[in-house]
Amino acid sequence: MKTSLDCIPCILRQTLDAARMVSPNPTVHEQILREVLRWTGDMDLSQSPPELAQRIHRRLREITGLSDPYRALKERTNQAALELLPALRAEIAASNDPLITAARIAIAGNHIDVAIHSQITEQDVLQAINEAFTAPFYSETEKFHHFVETAQSIVYLTDNAGEIAFDRLLVEQLPRERVTLVVRGSPVINDATLEEARAVGLDQLVRVIDNGSDAPGTILSDCRPEIRHLIDNADLVIAKGQGNFESLSSYPANIFFLFKVKCPVAAEHIRQPVTTQVLALSLAAPA
Description:
Largest sheet: 7 strands, mixed
Number of strands: 7
Order of helices and strands: HHHHHHEHEHEHEHEHEHE
CATH topology of the largest domain: Rossmann fold
Structural class: alpha/beta
CATH superfamily of the largest domain: Uncharacterised protein PF01937, DUF89, domain 3
Radius of gyration: 18 Å
Number of domains: 2
Helix content: 40-55%
CATH architecture of the largest domain: 3-Layer(aba) Sandwich
Strand order of the largest sheet: 1-7-6-5-2-3-4
């Protein structure tokens, strides 16, 4: 997905929100915003939004000297999500379709996104799950069942901390011996890394690796070569979050996107209204 002109005001808002979150210093806020304003004048609109976001957050970490400015928030949201898992497991077990119920809960967790919501609280985590079965849902249910049942290899691309605890519920419904779970290579925003995957116990269920990149999406040219090989050879790729949709929507692989539509630009691409929870096969998937 290319960067739209409508993405630019959103990028500037996200920049200021992020600067204020990681530093109390107004000088830092002004410095990073001025730099991003200069960058947007020269930006390549053929790139996906996560590519500019990667540059912004690298610069924020450089200016503040903080390698993981969102660490405390990630720990807090992971813990809040973990506390909900026993009750949610019971709900999944009692449902008529445990796979899709788990998928809906995992998608609802995609609300835990600091790039969109500058402040995330434990109450927000609870609200996201409460909305799991009331928010609009666009689902290619039969296709997803078919891919899960027939896939010999599954790659699961994660998104945010907190959300990753709910991903565990979906992973528990998959043939785990066939699953490789991929996290970010190093901290960016509140995206999940190996540390967050281990904190929710995913490394005890499936093989977990990092992609070698600090982009808030999956920019294959920036990932370790193994990641492209895994995606190219997987029978099923589960890609969580709008950042993964933005960076992989045109990539020709069997990718199911699972995310909450958070902006009009993404809504136009996926052809679903904002706030819709999506479980859909990529339009670029091989026929």
